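Workshop exercise sheet. Pairs work together: one partner reads the sequence aloud, the other fills in the structure field after running the prediction. Swap roles for the next sheet.
Pair: D.N. / O.F.
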Amino acid sequence: MASKRAKTKPSVDKRTLFSVISASSVGTLIEWYDFYIFGSLAAILSSQFFPKDNPTAALLSTLATFAAGFIVRPFGALVFGRLGDLVGRKYTFLVTLVLMGGSTFAIGLIPGYATIGFWAPLLVLLLRLIQGLALGGEYGGAATYVAEYAPEGRRGYYTSFIQTTATLGLFVSLGVIMLTRESLGVDKFSDWGWRVPFLLSIVLVGVSIVIRLRMAESPLFSKLKTEGTLSKNPLAESFGKKQNLKMVLLALFGATAGQGVIWYTGQFYALSFIQKACNIEFVQSNMIVAIALLAATPFFIVFGGWSDRIGRKPIMLAGMALGILTYRPIYDKLYSLADLTQRQEFVDAQTIDRKLAKLDNGGTLVTMTTTHFYEDGLIAKDIEKTVTATPKGQPGKPELTKSVTLPRASFWLMVLLIFVQVVYVTMVYGPVAAFLVELFPTRIRYTSMSLPYHIGNGIFGGLTPFIATALVATATKANETVPGSVAKPYLEGLWYPILVAGVCFVIGLVYLSNKRSTTPED
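Structure field:
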């Protein structure tokens, strides 16, 4: 069988292979960057595009808009997956790149809620949906493209480079956001500087388009095209045949759904948790996540390569099991590192700072900052902003925000706890591209693998921040109504990823095979 495959599969030299990986990875990284800056700036966007009188509702609306981009990804997978199996991988993910970059750039141009009212969130939602559709078609194309160039028995290793781009895209987005914020200052960044990361994406996309135009079509797809054996109806072949549909469902409920919640918990919910539940200062919280991401990224390649030797199943299931068993103690520890009730404050060292700023509408912005110092070096700030009465209106409601800056020891312990979660991500995500590619034949591979991937990641994974935040808000409200009814409300959001990963782990353990599937074209 192996000798037969060697005769039918075109050979590719290593230089060409790494050129393909580099071109695919750069484009995919930029697309992830485009997608992530929205999530990373959720707190600021909620105040720009939604009414400010209910900050919790505004944040949930922003997270729901963020989640909408994930929900439509399966539709993008169907549309662009079909296109990729009919006309080729190269031109399909060129289209997705243009759509993604154009919509990201446009978000940076939309006026805020204060200027155009409900048109603002409506336009953001529309562009977010285009982003999601484009990303739905992108990943499957890139993973398929690299896998079809990779040599026999090394797909886990070579496709793992594509897997790093999702984390590196988040890392780059955090880096651009922090650099912009530090350059402009907090006030200017919150006012208009948040648009810069969105607008900058058009330059990055332009570079990526030039790189991708130089790429050739996948050798396996070209071979099928030459032989005239391309699928005439990839959707019907993928989901109309019982055996293939069974593999799609098994890939979703035995692998990608659990992989999705582990991924989005370890990267996105972790950042949201330390910013919202722990009130860690903006720059410090992003630094913590950025360092953890950078340190853990090589493990994508480690686990991808290892999966070529021992199989994809044990590594992915181990990542899910570790998340299920350790999420609650990890997040409990994260919370305790910033818990002010467990610390002794130097009350005499407390300082109060008051600043006044004239506004264009005739009012005055009063900013009162109270700084607290604690025995272990932790610094906490209570910042209250109030707009005085204007000639045309009443005084605004005070806006209170809290900020915690950790001492060095707690900072690095928090980095370690996030790093551990990202390693779990590398275990479930590093081998998953090779796992999906090997489940389906070349003629319908783009279509078949894209759907379970994007339902697992787009819906099960993408909803994690929204559902987890809503669960915490519900538990907190219950505690306010009946004090003590929920012991640790800040941990309630974890039940969602734990439950989904638990179900997926059981199904995967029972029904997934650890043997690599083979197809006639391979």
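Discussion prompt: The beta strands are 351-358, 364-373, 379-387, 399-405. What would you look at next?
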